[in-house]
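B., you asked whether I could sanity-check this one before it goes into the benchmark set. Here's the sequence:
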Amino acid sequence: MKVTLKDVADAANLSVASVSRILTNRGRYSEVTAKRVRELAQKMGYYKNQNAADLSSKKSRAVGVVVPLIHTNFADEVIKGLYEATISSGYELLITYLDENEDHQYQVFQTLLSRQVGAVFMLSLDIPSWMVNTLLEEKISVISLTALLNDQVSAVTSDESEMMNTIIDYLVTMGHKNIALIGDTKLTTIISNTRRTNFIKLMHAHGLTDDNMFLYGTDHTYETGYNSVTTDYDINHLPFTAAVATADLVGQGLANAMLDHGKKVPDDLSIVTIDGLQQTEIARPKLTTIQQNFPEIGRVAMQLFLNSDSSNKDPQVIYIPTELIQRDSVLNLNAKI
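And here's what the prediction gave me:
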């Protein structure tokens, strides 16, 4: 039997109007009461349906994408591709943003279910396991974008191992042995953990040791790139000849720091970025990059949902090809010998 708003109100010993205001974030109520009602609603399986047409047709024409509140500009490119595919398929795209606040996470979750979305696309997120599990229990397709979330969820992404292998192989071929990974190198997120692990593994695979590797930073920001060679390392005596930037912004920060301190890229430091957005082409010098096809990730993800067979629930992983774009930011050390 379907749980009604009245059922939740009776269980909470409140009026239907009060419970409705709490679940739709209207009016004034104490946080203690709000939390109790939301937990009851979640436990009982009640979600307010804000789309009567979807309910009557038993089929949703909306999909949702969940984006980290703090994100790099590649997210916009993924959303563009996803939006194009969504609109052309006759669906509506609901964009929501997620941070680490538990109450906010619940609100996002409530919004997605209240709209009866047919699919939820997770953009490079480490999200609470309860959210993923409940979405799957509700028979909602969950597809991760630009990252492998877990073995229960389909993903459309670039091959992180292949990207890092391409970069390290290229730098080593160009004569570089002491290489830094700069940007988000912490072990607490999916992307950062994967890139750091692959960086170390592939450096070892090229016969290089831990003494040849340098790790710096906890985020994908311009400031991290800039500060890496001006604060943590002595810009006049860098222990590495090349740096792999975990995002284009990080690479731009590196390049500008070198320029501001009278150094040259690539003569004093070679730089390769990951992502390959337009800023790498308009930077001075133009930055060598491993370019991901973000719009295609969005388009393919929507197509994966549209083509999904309800009888086949096995998660799929689709890798979108990437390309090394060689520009002006890497010095060939072999040519100097």
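One thing to flag: The CA atoms of residues 123 and 145 lie 5 Å apart. Otherwise nothing jumped out at me.
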